[in-house]
Amino acid sequence: MYKDYNMTQLTLPMETSVLIPTNDISRHVNDIIETIPETEFDEFRHHRGATSYHPKMMLKVVLYAYTQSVFSGRKIEKLLNDNIRMMWLS
User: Fold this and answer.
1) SS3 string of the chain?
2) What residue segments make up the domains of the chain, in order of their start?
């Protein structure tokens, strides 16, 4: 008898923070960036074109990638698709 095998079943929990330990570097990056007041990001706000990603989220992603010695934009994009910590930060 084999275990049930279904490749189309979603096995990740909906809340990704459950999978990240409390003392993980991604949580520290998140906590540090969250201490920055929203007013510091006001100059990046604009009302033309498509909606943009929040600068705090982008900063979290870039800083976490740097802690993992990832500096290439394409490699950061790959991390965003593959790494649960990057998914949580974004």
Assistant:
1) CCCCCCCCCCCCCCCHHHHCCCCCHHHHHHHHHHCCCHHHHHHHCCCCCCCCCCHHHHHHHHHHHHHCCCCCHHHHHHHHHHCHHHHHHC
2) 54-90
